[in-house]
Amino acid sequence: METSLFVQMLIGALLGLSVYLPLRCGQLSLATPGFYAIGGTTAALLSTRVGALGGSDPTYPISSVMLEMLLAGLLCGLLATGIGKVVLRLRGVYLAIATIALVEILRVTTLNQESLGGAVGIFGIPQPFNDPAGYAVFSLAVLALVCWLCDRLERNRLGRAMAAIRDDELAAACQGIDTERAKLVAFVLSAVVAALTGVISAHFLNSWNARLGNFDASITTLAFVVFGGSRTWAGPVLGGLVLTALPELLRPVGDLRLIVFGLVILVGPLLLPQGLINPALLGWLRGNLPKR
After folding, report:
1. 233 Cβ contact list (under 8 Å, min separation 6)
2. Which of 50, 265, 272, 292 has its CA 20 to 30 A from that of 199?
C-alpha cells in the first residue's frame, strides 16, 4: 500500500470521528466539511502569507503546524459554539439540512473571496515533511490522540450522558441531564477535530480550495460512520479507513470500481444496519475479552 494512500485513510478516519461525536448525542450534523474547510483555509493562509512562520529551515517548522492547528481549533470551536446554540434546537433531518446549508454558505463565501483564494484556491503550501511517511506518522499520532480522548469520553459522565440523550433525550432530561450542554459540547468537539484534520490535509495536499468542503464531502464522511458503526469510536475509524482505501484498491477493475464502491455503500447498511462495529459484536467482545 502506498504511504500517500495510508495518509488519506488516516485523514478519513479523523473525519469519521468528527461526524461520530454529534451522533453520540443522536444529532445528525453534516457540518464536518465546513469546519474541515475552515481549518484547511486557516493553515493555507498562515503558511503562505505569514513569513515569520516559515523559519530559516528548508522544511516548514512542525511548531508552526502545531500553532496553525491551535488557531484553527480555537476558531472553529468558537464558531461551533455560536452556531451550535442556534442549529442544535433542530433535530433529525432538519438539523442535517441546516448543517448542509452551513457547509454550502461557507463554500460559496470562500469561492467569492479573493483574499481566501477564490475559485482557484491557494497553492504552494509549504511542506513540514520531506516525504509522505512523515505525514503518516504525524497523522497517526493525531488519530491515536483523538481516539484516546473519544475512549475516555465514552467512559466518563459526559459520555454516558451523551449516550443517554441518543437513546431517549426526553428521558435523559427528566433524569437531570443538561441535554443542551452535552449536545453543544459534542458539536464543538466535532468542529475542533475537523479543523485539525483540515490543517493536516492542507499541508499534505500542497494546495487548498473551497471545493474540498462541499455537500459531497458531507455525504462521504457520513458514510464512514454508517458503514463502520456509530455505537463506539472504533466504528467511524474503521469506516473511514476502509471506504477511503476502497476506491484505490479497486482501481485494477477500471471504471467498474465506482460501481463496486457504490454497491458496498448501498449493501453494507442493508446487511449490517448498525455498521461493522455493532452492539452484537461489542457484546461478544465484552463477554470474551479480559476486563481492564
Report:
1. 17, 20, 147, 150, 151, 154
2. 265
Q: CB of 172 within 8 A of CB of 159?
A: no
| CA 21 – CA 197 distance, rounded (Å) | 15
C-alpha cell at 207: 494546495
- Beta strand spans in the chain (E): 122-123, 207-208
Question: What's the rounded mean pLDDT across residues 215-233?
Answer: 87
- Per-residue confidence (pLDDT) for residue 254, from 0 to 100: 74
Q: What is the pLDDT of residues 236-272, one digit of tens each?
A: 999 999 999 988 888 777 777 778 777 877 787 778 8
What is the residue-averaged pLDDT of the chain?
89
pLDDT > 90: percent of the chain: 55
Grid cell listed for 123: 497553492
179 grid coordinates: 441535554
DSSP per position, 14-48: HHHHHHHHHHHTT-----HHHHHHHHHHHHHHHHH
Q: In 3-state terms, what secondary structure has residue 194?
A: helix
Mean pLDDT on 51-72: 87
> Which residues have a Cβ under 8 Å from the Cβ of 230 and sit 6 or more positions away?
20, 23, 24, 236, 274, 275
Cell numbers at residue 63, please?
A: 511548531
Mean pLDDT for 58-77 is 93
Number of neighbouring beta carbons within 10 Å of residue 50: 12
Q: CA–CA separation, 91 vs 42, rounded Å? A: 30
